[in-house]
Amino acid sequence: MVNEIFDHTTENMDKGIDALKRDFATLRTGKVTTGIVDNIKVDYYGTMTALTQVGNVIATDATTISITPWEKTLLPVIEKAIQEANIGVNPNNDGDFIKLFFPPMTSDQRKEIVKQAKGMVEHAKISIRNMRKDGNDQIKKLEKDKEIGEDDSKKGQDQIQKITDEHIAKIEEAFKTKESDILKV
Length: 185
What we know:
Helices cover about 60% and strands about 15% of the residues.
């Protein structure tokens, strides 16, 4: 029973780290990636659809993203969605595809993006701590219901803390990697 709680807590914390990595993908680094447009949705026949599902999105070089929609009628819709997303560039529509030209980042922009990453890290840590609390609450409930003893409850809570510490360390490591990518010129 306690092992199931450990497994469940570990699984949820792993999902929290995966979510952080997805969030990190939306941040701009020295080299642009298509992840920058992952959160942009377009109105596709009345349904809000991810930009990547209505066209081909590729990074043609270190500063350019090219978007070729499956249907030419979507060009103005995509252009408007990109402008509203406020990703720091204006779309260039040539009638066949849209290109996004990203200028080199200034040191101030890099520092601002690092701040955004720190905010994402704090959110992930809060999420991990909430999962720790849930795991500890489940163990305490087992103790209260007399399914495990006080010693087993203490050992279980210590194990949950170890799992939490491991995941917090993984978050810190992911942040250090992302920070170096952002600050690298």
